[in-house]
Write the structure tokens for this entry.
Amino acid sequence: MNIDAVIFDWGGTLTPWHIIDLKDQWLEYAKIYSPERAEELAGELLAAEQARWSHQFETAGQTGTGALEVMFQEHGVDTSSASHFAALDAYLAAWDPHTYTDEDAVDLLESLRGQGIKTAVLSNTMWPRRHHESVLERDGVLHLFDYLLFTSETETAKPHKSVFADVSYNLDVTPDKCAFVGDRLFDDIHGAQSIGMRGIWVPHSKNIPAAESTDLGITPDATIDRLGDVLDIVNGWNAAS
Ligand SMILES: [Mg+2]
């Protein structure tokens, strides 16, 4: 069966994996939104974020990541206020150094598309679409994707089959003709394989929290050292079919 579409995870796959102090990131937000209780608010937002990730993982994506917007509102943040917008800008700016697109991405995506293979992003994320799109545009790759799915806009998340099915449907390519590239065995590889896609694992990410790295005996269809290697894997599969 030919591969007619390649779908990419974002964090740790299209971007590098960095170990980050998440509390520091939230302090960037809190010291602008609520300088008088910045420590406290940063702690609350961090705990809320981590609770959401844990719940998403424990329910295998049946419960989605949700959106930051909702999380803020649950903590009494006025998301229409100028101070919120300024604080959110500072928060996302603090993430910038960790969002740069892998240096292999442009050549890889252009090569795949040059062969008529469709491309997409499927990301478990709470960030708004507009921010993800601006990051991809900054790095010159936004126009190289046929479809983008961010779970800040969906009820479910990886590894739930529904989000993989959504991408397959919108690319108009059946799952058996899709390859998924990701750095997490459970969310990415198991999720993709459970709907009949092939899973290409990029083991970039170190120190994924133990609670989120259950491998369940998952065997990727291919394992690569760097993102650009996706091209050889897909071409090899297509030459053999
Ligand atoms: Mg990832």
About this structure: The chain has a mean pLDDT of 93. The chain is about 45% helix and 10% strand. Residues 3 and 177 are 4 Å apart (CA to CA). Residues 22-97 form one domain.
